[in-house]
Specification:
The protein is α/β, with parallel strands linked by helices and 233 residues long. The protein is built from eight helices and seven strands; from the N terminus they run ααβαβαββαβαααββ. The termini are far apart.
Length: 233
Amino acid sequence: MHEPEDPGARRLSRFWEARAREDALRYSLPSGARVDEPAFAASGGAALDAFGEHLGAWLPDDLDDAVLDVGCGAGRLTGALAERGRAVTAVDVAPTMVATARARLGDDAARTWHVARAADLPLDDATVGAALLLGVLPHLPTLELVTDALAELARVLRPEGTAVFDVRSAPAPLTLPGEDGLPSHVARHPLWRGSVVGLETLAAVAFEHGLGIERIAGSETARSLVLARREAV
């Protein structure tokens, strides 16, 4: 994939490519925690279980209906979905993230890989039955970028298709020096800190693009987990 021409897109790509080269597993986790390979792989299945516990059923019944994993990173959720018999289309803005995921998980007919932004997915309209965007929207620094990603998600979802994503819905708690394990060049960067999107604003933006918010978990915290559904035709 050629480098995006838009300066903001180039900045986004360069930031996450730098994180991937620094430590692809660490920066595939929303927390930026250091983990080894077994813990990283195990956390993907635990996350899928948590989605079900907090949001209910969201995956298509048909195992051949590929799940879209946007911001796949080093393949934490991609691998967990594959272990459960799901075909996956995995997308990340950083080439090294995609390369790391492919090296970990391999290539077969059930997995396809793309280097692309959440706002510019290499997929046709209304072709996806379910999608994940974990750790994507919370790191986008403006509401405009969040809106662009949600609009693109709505474009590729089929009518009544589902999406699970997280959003930074309140300011993060204050941390003092020494309390945040992230290096300062990451923790203070606007592409890591992201922007706060109130849940009422989120619902309005989603509705504008044909996405209905069905459930929200964690609304009392700084990070909310959301289940959305593409409106029926």
